[in-house]
Amino acid sequence: MKLTIVGSRGAYPLEGEATSCYLIQDNDTNIVLDFGAGSLAKIQQFIALEQIDAVLITHYHPDHFSDIFCLQHAFLIKNQLGEIDKKLRIYAPNHEPYFSQMTLEMSSESIPIKGQTVIKLGDMTLEFLETKHIIYSLAIKLTKGDKSIVYTSDTELTDELIEFSKGCHVLLCECSLYQPIPEIKGHMSTLEVEKLIELSGPRMTLLTHLPPYGRNELLLENIKPYPIALASAGVFIDCHEACEHSND
Ligand SMILES: [Zn+2]
Ligand SMILES: [Zn+2]
User: Fold this and answer.
1) How far is the CA of 61 from the centre of ligand 2 (A)?
2) Host domain of residue 219
3) What digits encode the pLDDT tens for the residues 86-98?
């Protein structure tokens, strides 16, 4: 499994950036976790759109899914032009008014997911956990062999999330808060992230959903001495090589 950061900003993207969007590639399977603002333009630096097999939406906040509508139109136009004969699969919570919009003729089909759902995509097993957020949201665990990646999406710290994350290879963890906005319901600050790392023991942690203000490096300084880095576009981790690279 290879994880590439496409977008790592929370709330809204700064110039040239994207909000939540993570590309996972394993052999011929290409899937994307979340598709927030800015993702559609940014992801084309890493993969041709028609090679994307499925997008998994954790929840219906704009910084996690707003670009999905334009991606549907990309698939629609490519199908109409005869460039492809393929529908995008969109896995998403079965909540309206958005779930029914994930299906579009000649473009995409929607498949509902919720906590406890288990699916196979290629050689990867995907599990989901309902998290504690402002609206219904899911964390995702992808496992292949003895390696797993856990993506928290947006959440407060819960015992269930600690259990869900235990022993993972890569923890892709939201870390949204520092001064002057140290606390918001439904998100984690460095204090909670440190506790999650301490109790779940990931091999490495990438902090993501980064605040669009202040100095993000402060987040690293507040979480020591664990192996952590900030997620930024172009950073990728190949779980089989067990090391981190950067295109920057
Ligand atoms: Zn968010
Ligand atoms: Zn959210």
Assistant:
1) 5
2) 2-246
3) 999 999 999 999 9
